[in-house]
Specification:
By secondary structure, the protein is an alpha+beta fold. The protein folds into 2 domains: about 250 residues, no CATH class; about 120 residues, no CATH class. The protein is about 30% helix and about 25% strand. It has 13 helices and 23 strands. Strands 1, 4, 5, 6, 8, 9, 10, 11 and 13 form a 9-stranded mixed β-sheet that branches. Strands 16-18-17-20-15-19 form a 6-stranded antiparallel β-sheet. Strand 9 and strand 10 form a beta hairpin.
């Protein structure tokens, strides 16, 4: 039976040659800036970012490096199909969390719906298309969530977490991670049967998903099981944390933010950074913060019926990121592309003396499922799932049809 997820023969770093996996794993390609890329490459000449990111767009050189690592057995393939249980421990605002899920293959063309939840951009897809064509592999997993908690996943985690891990490392934020190889066919079958019962939503990796699906349609006669993509699959658990993504924008006029157009719809109050975060989390109405000229402001909608009138019948009328872009930014005469950050300290730094930072609450997980399950997509940068799923744990090479 063809399940929605399946075990596979993964390719991964050779533990006989790589003794410290913290030096070779890295974040997903789209969150690595130039400074971090430099630091990662200094950790090890075999850091995975070397085959996630090109040097000045040289895709041929990236492909050659990948094949060299395989031929030298820096990367080598397992002989047995497995799933990989992946645990991440982390702390947010003083609270400790644990998130766990499995790395495996996800079917892209089955009857079980896989709902994307965000719109994609053209440039990243062009880049990923060139890389997948060069390496003939899924290098990083897409991040997929089951809409309901999974009892089987929890039982599996409890069992394996008491055993010795296949590998362990710390991510770039210092969060400890452990990975167990699930080779037992009984455990694999239970997990595959379990996730066949769930609707799944892509939380991260939308560009990789679209590129892989298009590659499958064009090359399915060439490679076996190309209708599957490398994925990290988890469920709706307490460790599934979404951070807010703040917007930093250029401001033409001070009155555009705090003038009569905005005050007609919003209460505007000066506040402190600490109080702003508290008010945002307590507010039941649409609200947001503004950081401008070293001062914080809390803005709260006066009447929720305003949104019903403006966004009548829209699935997005309760989505803060959508309301901010389509309603608030229009009121404030804000144009151009914002800068994005999930760190309030960085938002303040980016705002400087001539810009404004719009501080948002995190998007609730329930809103992600509700919108995605209706076939709609969220605006760009609506969610930031933390921590990111590290790249370089396992990858999936495409196998030629025999």
């Amino acid at each position: 039976m063809a399940y929605t997820i399946k075990a596979f023969r993964a390719t991964h770093y050779n533990p006989r040659l790589i003794k410290n996996f913290s030096t070779v794993t890295c974040p997903p390609y789209d969150v690595i800036n130039k400074k971090q890329e430099f630091l990662l490459k200094n950790k090890s000449p075999y850091n995975f970012c070397n085959i996630l990111l090109t040097d000045n767009g040289n895709y041929k050189a990236l492909g050659q490096k990948f094949r060299q690592w395989v031929s030298k057995k820096i990367l080598f393939a397992d002989t047995k199909e497995s799933l990989y249980l992946y645990e991440q421990k982390f702390t947010i605002h003083g609270k400790r969390y644990v998130r766990f899920g499995v790395l495996g293959l996800l079917r892209m063309d089955g009857k079980k719906a896989i709902f994307p939840h965000e719109y994609t951009l053209k440039a990243p897809k062009i880049d990923r298309k060139k890389i997948i064509s060069e390496v003939k592999a899924n290098l990083s997993p897409v991040f997929v969530i089951a809409s309901r908690p999974s009892k089987i996943l929890k039982i599996t985690y409890r069992h394996y977490s008491k055993t010795r891990p296949f590998l362990k490392f710390k991510d770039t934020d210092g969060n400890p991670s452990r990975v167990w190889k699930i080779e037992n066919s009984s455990w694999i079958k239970k997990l595959c049967e379990e996730f066949d019962k769930h609707k799944l939503v892509i939380a991260d990796g939308h560009h990789r998903f679209e590129v892989s699906y298009n590659y499958y349609k064009k090359h399915k006669k060439e490679f076996a099981e190309l209708n599957y993509i490398l994925a990290y699959i988890t469920d709706a658990q307490s460790g599934l944390v979404i951070l807010p993504t703040h917007r930093v924008v250029s401001v033409k006029n001070e009155a555009d933010i705090f003038g009569p157009k905005v005050s007609e719809y919003f209460y505007i109050n000066k506040t402190s950074e600490k109080e702003l975060e508290k008010k945002l989390m307590q507010s039941k109405e649409f609200s947001f913060g503004v950081y401008r000229n070293k001062q914080f402001y809390f803005l709260r909608l006066k009447n929720r019926l305003i949104l019903d009138k403006i966004f009548k019948g829209s699935v997005y009328k309760n989505l803060d990121t959508y309301i901010l872009h389509k309603f608030v930014f229009t009121l404030c005469n804000i144009e151009g592309q914002p800068e994005y950050t999930h760190e309030l300290s960085e938002a303040k730094k980016l705002a400087g003396s001539d810009k404004a930072a719009f501080i948002l609450k995190p998007t609730p997980l329930a809103a992600v499922f509700k919108i995605a399950n209706q076939g709609y997509r969220l605006p760009q940068k609506s969610t930031y799932f933390y921590p990111k799923v590290s790249s370089g744990i396992v990858l999936r090479k495409f196998e030629k049809r025999r």
